[in-house]
Design goal:
The structure holds 2 protein chains of 2 kinds. Chain A is about 10% helix and about 65% strand. By secondary structure, chain A is mainly beta. The longest helix of chain B is centred in the first third of the chain and has 18 residues. The chains are: A mainly beta, B mainly beta. At the A-B interface, strand 12, strand 13, strand 14, strand 15 and strand 16 of A face helix 1 and strand 22 of B. Chain B: InterPro entries: DUF4876 (IPR032627).
């Protein structure tokens, strides 16, 4: 309830900002502003603007949007711990208010309510954040989920310097009303400070530092009178902590992290773009019932680098971008001496788990954007991704690589008070390497089946078709209506398919 | 523009470094060099060991390391840091009163903590005593569920088997339930486990001494309520033909007058339907009165919860190991912490429930394996004093039709 109140406070803030700038905004044509925000080129450049100081340069114009989204995502091949998809309704309000030469203010408030489908071998939320140290059983099922998200920031221009601050907060509650009955509440807060310095009339050099705080409380209950399945505390690649398998059903995850960013960017989005960021995140997992047992610690380090070049000539633009992403996750697990009932003494710890992910990608874009005539954009990318996981005892390993590429085309046209957009794209991925080793396992065991099911997903190639369409219409008083729909069909093979739908309706001003 | 190019180079160099990243080192564990000295059973001469197999089970990971590399009663092995349960099986030959005797030997050490670079430990061997008399053949301790899914009470039973080639008499046989539980490990003081089993309830087969003969290869059934439970619960068992039942007048209990009642020696006998307690089969050396007079066991322990220690004092009875004919440690698979008998009596454990409140445990029993068929056609049951190996876990009860 408090979070809902916060949403309304944020919305009131957006409204207030709007009214204070209304005179200025009224003078700007909504469709013109929408044209900047809907430009396909943003997909190419937005990734460089994560520093709150350079966010000032991300958009030239102001826009506020409030949307109601309906989403459904379901696929037959998936990581069991993440579920086969989700369906949800979401309300989202976004605002970016630019006061050229002075400052920029932005914010987002969102509420999502839905269901995560078919999640197995994890009774936790946020698998990608806390993997592989989840609490699991062999039953699983759908999970109801509610998410609140707030973010906002401010960038202040002082002569040749821009100072920026931003914060993002997410609160999630996931639960199930039949056995097993997990109740997971997680919160994730990130605060970022940035500064940007103008090097000359074309380029800026910017730095940023961030701090992150994460927590998840997970409580699992069973109401059945006749029994409950074993609850496992997983440790990676299907291994579990044998000493605590059974009925220890409460766990807490406490994480924190920091990051640094460095950007070299053109002020007018023409020329060289480059960005380098480092993220460190660590968390500990503690069993909390009936006694406190510090089970594992995870240290994760991520490095991301992007380098791009964009040329504009009248209405045309073309460019390329090279991206590299590397992350490494170490799992350090404790060993205990069992001194007696609920009396465990930690005797040693060792790094038993390691996971490394890499992704390298080249992207090219070419397009024409005209004020009133037909505009179009064509982008293509090709990349290589690789992941390798190892577990020490028992010795298990998993490695897979894939080449993937895609092409995306989008057309847009202004007709009267309307802005129409349609797009189509295709993507294909081909597995180039797949190796797994989990010797000595019973092939009939459910944990073996889990590993094999996940492996089938990791090593599956796919073909993807994407279609999207959007319509914006300007009403009186510079208000607008917005409709958007996306559909993505994925074909892993003849027996395994996937579909993603998005339907969005909202207002813009 | 010089400045611009230098600034541009920073992310570019980082990008190149990323692509040139070498694979990280392989994972490795901290190893401890363990020297294990095997101590022969006392009082034996010219001891020789053969076929020794030592299993090291790390209790956190469940990883088992098996070694047979024993030289001169010493084994050297490298193990990852951790807490280990160590069990030994093997053959032993020795001289006693001028004769060379061969037999089985075993050893068990629970909760050995290995940290640091090296560790030396001793392991006391004991002589295996193959069961040639009465043994516990089957324990049905889980009970049943009604067709409506409700717990049904009263249909648990024990089968006691004559594993010898001679007629034995069941008169005076004692069944006792352990006071300590296999899923609740505590440091009990004084620790009498090497000489006795602490018991919380004891029942005894009545009789004058030769009133209840049991032929070779035959068994008797000691049941909770010796009635046809199927009339009350279609999922249950007809125990109306049981040989004995345990009956308590002060409880809401059923007495079948056609079936003799067990004598209650100490406390009410109520098998735990999850399998947390262990059971022993024994004979009192000097009768019930001697037992009740001289074998009281006062003990204390510190109950530790979340680092806070609470002293607890309690008292039960203890049955000397020398009186015990057979012992079976039971547990819940995911909850097991220790065995509650001397390993010379039973160095293993068996189970029906995989987890504490496992619904699948109902209607299942543990049953001793058949080792061989004797020339007279009777089954010889396996009794190596290791219930892990000797019993089949979670079977349909043999009396359930």
């Amino acid at each position: 309830m408090r979070l809902q109140i916060m949403i309304w406070i944020c919305l009131a803030g957006i409204g207030t900002s709007y009214s204070s700038d209304s005179v200025k905004l009224d003078s700007l044509n909504l469709i013109k502003r929408l044209r900047e925000y809907r430009a396909p080129l943003n997909r190419f450049t937005d990734g460089f603007y994560t520093n709150p100081a350079v966010k000032y340069h991300q958009r030239k114009l102001s826009l506020t949007e409030m949307n109601l989204n309906l989403e459904q995502n379901k696929q037959d091949r998936y990581v069991l711990q993440e579920g086969k998809g989700f369906k949800q309704a979401a309300f989202e309000a976004n605002a970016f208010l630019k006061n050229e030469g002075k400052d920029a203010l932005w914010g987002t408030a969102a509420y999502q309510n839905g269901k995560r489908l078919g999640q197995n071998w994890s009774e936790n939320a946020d698998y990608k954040t806390i993997y592989p140290y989840v609490m699991a059983d062999t039953v699983g099922g759908d999970l109801s989920a509610e998410t609140y998200r707030f973010s906002g920031g401010y960038a202040l221009k002082l002569n040749h310097t821009i100072l920026g601050i931003s914060a993002a907060y997410r609160a999630l509650m996931e639960y199930r009303n039949v056995d097993p009955r997990p109740k997971n509440t997680s919160s994730d807060l990130e605060i970022k400070l940035g500064a940007s310095r103008s090097l000359n009339n074309r380029y800026e050099l910017a730095i940023a530092g961030s701090f992150r705080k994460y927590s998840q409380e997970s409580n699992l209950k069973f109401f059945s009178e006749t029994g409950a399945p074993i609850v496992y505390h997983m440790a990676g690649l299907g291994v579990d902590h044998k000493l605590f398998a059974g009925n220890r059903r409460n766990a807490f995850y406490d994480g924190k992290g920091y990051g640094f960013e460095l950007q070299f960017l053109p002020k007018d989005k023409t020329g060289f773009f480059s960005s380098l960021s480092y993220q460190q995140f660590s968390f500990s997992k503690v069993i909390t019932d009936p006694v406190i047992i510090p089970l594992a610690e995870v240290n994760s380090n991520g490095l991301k680098a992007d380098l791009g070049y964009l040329i504009r000539s009248k209405d045309r633009y073309y460019g390329w971008k090279a991206s590299a992403f590397l992350t490494k996750r170490d799992g350090i697990e404790s060993k205990f001496d069992n001194k007696g009932q609920n009396n465990y003494v930690r005797i040693s710890s060792n790094q038993n788990y390691q996971d490394e992910q890499k992704d390298f990608r080249l992207t090219a874009v070419y397009g024409v954007q005209k004020e009133s005539k037909l505009s179009w954009d064509l982008s293509a990318d090709i990349g290589f991704s690789d992941e390798e996981s190892q577990y020490l005892e028992p010795a298990r390993s998993l490695q897979f690589s894939a080449l993937s590429g895609g092409i995306q085309a989008e057309l847009s046209k202004m007709l009267g008070k309307s802005l129409f957009r349609i797009g189509a794209g295709g993507r294909s991925a081909k597995n180039t390497k797949g190796q797994r080793s989990w010797p000595g396992m019973d092939a009939a065991s459910s944990v073996y089946q889990m590993l094999e099911t996940n492996y089938a997903y990791y090593t599956a190639g796919y073909q993807q078709l994407k279609l999207n369409a959007g319509w914006d219409y300007q009403l009186k008083n510079n208000m607008g209506l917005s409709l958007k729909s996306n559909w993505i069909h994925t074909s892993f093979d003849t027996a395994h398919q996937g579909n993603q739908f998005l339907l969005s309706a909202g207002i813009t001003f | 523009m010089k400045i611009n190019l230098r600034a541009l180079c920073l992310p570019l160099c980082a990008l190149l470094c990323l692509t040139a990243c070498k694979k990280d080192k392989q994972l490795g564990s901290k190893e401890v060099a363990l020297t294990l000295r095997l101590e022969n059973p006392q009082g034996l001469a010219a001891v020789s060991l053969s076929g020794v197999k030592i299993t090291f089970r790390e209790i956190n990971s469940g990883k088992e390391t098996v070694s047979s590399n024993v030289s001169g009663n010493t084994l050297s092995v490298s193990l990852a840091e951790g807490a280990y349960d160590i069990s030994l099986d093997g053959n032993i030959s020795y001289q006693l009163e001028g004769k060379t005797i061969t037999g089985k030997t075993g050893a068990l050490k629970q909760g050995l903590v290995l940290t640091g670079a090296q560790h030396t430990e001793s392991l006391k061997l004991f002589l295996g005593q193959a069961g040639g008399g009465f043994v516990i053949q089957e324990i049905f301790f889980t009970g049943t569920l009604s067709p409506e899914g409700k717990q049904y009470l009263g249909d648990k039973y024990f089968k006691i088997y004559n594993n010898s080639g001679e007629t034995l008499y069941a008169d005076g046989l004692v069944i006792a339930q352990s006071a300590f539980q296999t899923a609740t490990k505590e440091k009990y003081t004084p620790d009498v486990m090497s000489s006795a089993v602490a018991v919380e309830s004891v029942i005894m087969i009545p009789g004058s001494g030769k009133q209840y003969p049991v032929l070779p290869g035959k068994y008797i059934v000691v049941s909770e309520d010796a009635i046809n439970h199927k009339t009350n619960n279609a999922n249950s068992i007809d125990l109306s033909k049981a040989d004995f039942e345990f009956f308590y007048e002060d409880s809401d209990d059923i007495d079948n007058p056609q079936v003799p009642n067990m004598e209650t020696v100490y406390s009410k006998f109520n098998p735990n339907n999850r399998g947390y307690n262990s059971y022993v089969l024994a004979r009192f050396e000097k009768g019930v009165n001697d037992f009740l007079s001289n074998y009281k066991y006062d003990f204390s322990y510190d109950f530790v919860n979340d680092g806070v220690s609470f002293p607890v004092e309690s008292n039960e009875y203890k049955i000397p190991n020398s009186w015990i004919l057979d012992a079976v440690n039971l547990s819940v698979q995911s909850e097991f912490q220790w065995i509650v008998t001397d390993p010379a009596l039973d160095m293993g454990w068996t189970f029906c429930a995989k987890v504490s409140d496992d619904a699948a445990r109902y209607g299942k029993s543990v049953r001793r394996r058949v080792l061989a068929i004797a020339v007279d056609g009777r089954e010889i049951l396996k009794d190596t004093n290791n219930s892990t190996n000797d019993f089949e876990a979670g079977l349909r009860p043999s009396l359930m039709k």
